[in-house]
Specification:
Helix content: 40-55%
CATH architecture: Alpha-Beta Barrel
Largest sheet: 8 strands, parallel, barrel
Radius of gyration: 17 Å
Shape: globular
Structural class: alpha/beta
Number of domains: 1
Number of helices: 12
CATH topology: TIM Barrel
Distance between the termini: 48 Å
CATH superfamily: Aldolase class I
Bound molecules: the ligand O=C(O)c1ccccc1NCC(=O)[C@H](O)[C@H](O)COP(=O)(O)O
Number of strands: 10
Strand content: 15-25%
Order of helices and strands: HHHEEEHEHEHEHEHEHEHEHH
CATH class: Alpha Beta
Length: 271
Amino acid sequence: MNILDQIIATKYKEVAERKELYPVKLLEKSLYFETPCISLERYLLRPDKSGIIAEIKRKSPSKGDINPYVSVERTSISYMQAGASALSVLTDGPYFGGKNEDLMTARKFNYCPILRKDFTVDEYQIVEAKSIGADAILLIAAALEPARLKELAAFARSLGLEVLLEVHNLQELQQTLCDEVTVVGVNNRNLKDFVTDVNTSLELANHIPAGITKISESGISKPETLVTLRTAGYNGFLIGETFMQNSRPGQSAAAFIKEFKQLLAQQEVSA
Ligand SMILES: O=C(O)c1ccccc1NCC(=O)[C@H](O)[C@H](O)COP(=O)(O)O
């Protein structure tokens, strides 16, 4: 059993418990059901933005504690002031130290797309995502049968949420890409050994159909890497650890984005 299998097994149990505690009828009373979602895809494609989705991540299976007592209010605001295009908030508790309240805090203080980064296996979690103010959800190809993934994607779209389809290889991409998905994320982290390699993104870039918004996820630690990924056709870059391992993640993001923009300007001059 790899770590993803373990997380998913825990998630099914958690969802069954939450359904009892907070029934769908209750979640549907949330005011966020009246609020239109902010498009992640649109923000990633905006030329005035960096394409960075800055993540709030307290801990992880690969690194253990990263920034367990982070202030979500301060960090989310400073990420957006630094020039991030969107926020990603890990809401999984057992493996990532997150909670729904983290996303609700980020929602309260920011007008920007927010990805609920969790391990979605059931429609209930999609209703929950909408009820806490998320704009997009994650569906992981390695965790779902293709037909089930399509069903969940269609359900998310029916609530106005965007779907980020996460793949690790060509087979997953070919099996799961469907009409309901317009944003694909390539995860550079091998979930068997946790090794990250951005070549995973570079190798898959040309296999993702034109018209799909492409995101490279995990293990990005240098602004130069973003330039390479952008040249390969990526529109978005999901970054957690690199920022979160700093006591002030927003400052780390600001320095990173400044350098990225300088590199892009140099690239334009020399083109
Ligand atoms: O981060 C992990 O250790 C991990 C392990 C198992 C499943 C998922 C995991 N991470 C979730 C993510 O997708 C990342 O948080 C995200 O892509 C950002 O990655 P990074 O910039 O490397 O923190």
